[in-house]
Amino acid sequence: MPRLQRFLLHLLLIVSLPALLVTLLSLLTAQIWWLKLLDFPRFQLLLVHLAGLLGLGLLLVLGRRQQQTTRRWVLGLNLVGVAVQLYFLLPYLPLAPRPVPDATAAEAADTTARLRLLEANVLQKNNRADLLLARVARQRPDLVLALETDQRWVTALRPLRRTYPYFIELPRPNTYGMVLYSRLPLIGPRVYDFQEPGVPTIITDVRLPNGRLVRLYAVHPSPPVPSHHPTSLSQPNRVLLQVGRRVGQHPGPALVLGDFNDVSWSSPTRTFEASGELSNVRRGRGMFSTFNATSWAMRWPLDHLFVTQEFRLVRLERLPDIGSDHFPLLAEVVLAK
After folding, report:
1. Which of 31, 68, 196, 245 has the fewest CB atoms within 10 Å distance of its CB?
2. Sheet of strand 311-318: strand arrangement
């Protein structure tokens, strides 16, 4: 038994060391693509460190207190790892402060100021457009934003034109196509390639039933993988910088919706929020991890909604699978000011 306990203790040390190394490397801000990807699995690394502490606790209960130096190393490594990961994750867990307040019953009842949004990265090679169409029919959002839409997807989604008479269709063969369908009038829509050609951003005003205008920014920046998108490292948050600057220059209610190809707690995303103009509706409500829909173990929040201070949140939900590697994100907000 003591031999087994020593083996398990050293196994905990062997697991804890690389886990903490990855945790510490993820704190570096150097523009190296694989370092940036280490920012993604914070929740998974938190579970590894918590499992290390739990395993150590069980060994202390079940075994004799030998190998004190090794035990201290296991304890220290995992305590540091837990502290680092919680620093990033706590703001997104339930009971944390909510910078976007919940709508009151009276605010939620004002249908003239409510806006229901459905965003989905459809996965360009996915053939199940019927699943997305069924989800739209069931949820009846006011706005539908679909990403990774090539011409085949645009053709498959054209039935939406019957109930969404205002639309912008930007098919692209490079997985950065984008379509926006709306029940509400789209005023002055514009398309920009902030980061590189072929990676569009839509900016448009949306007229609510009460006549007020809301500015919508639909985004899908490229990921930090230089083999396909060299500018995603040299200009890692160019899309968010440009959008944030325009939100600051245009007073009034605004929303930023899309697949950021980045997690809520990354440096670019937190910098985007730190300006004070926009807030992440996830904060204080949960992870709502939308990617990867094909893996229960490796999931993180890549699809986001940021809103200005005029909004209150009525509903936030991750919708069921539509055959993509992303789950759709459904949000309902109300303009309260």
Report:
1. 68
2. 166-170, 178-182, 143-147, 114-121, 329-335, 311-318
Report yes or no on whether pTM surpasses 0.70.
Answer: yes
Instruction: State the 10-residue block means of pLDDT for the chain, 337 residues long.
Output: 75 91 88 83 95 88 71 92 96 94 95 97 97 97 98 98 98 97 98 92 97 97 65 62 91 95 89 87 96 94 97 98 98 93
Could you tell me if 162 and 138 are in contact, meaning their C-beta atoms sit under 8 angstroms apart? Answer: no
Collapse the DSSP code of 98 into the 3-class scheme (helix H, G, I; strand E, B; otherwise coil) and give the result: coil
> Three-state DSSP class for 24?
helix
Question: Can you give the residue ranges of every domain in the chain?
Answer: 2-90, 105-335
Which DSSP letter does residue 32 get?
Answer: -
> Is the Cα dihedral 292, 297, 302, 308 positive or negative?
positive
Contact present, 204 and 188 (Cβ < 8 Å): yes
Answer whether 163's CB lies under 8 Å from 183's CB.
yes
Nearest 5°: the CA angle 178, 183, 189 is: 50
Cβ-Cβ contacts under 8 Å for 53 (sequence gap 6 or more)? 75, 78, 79, 82
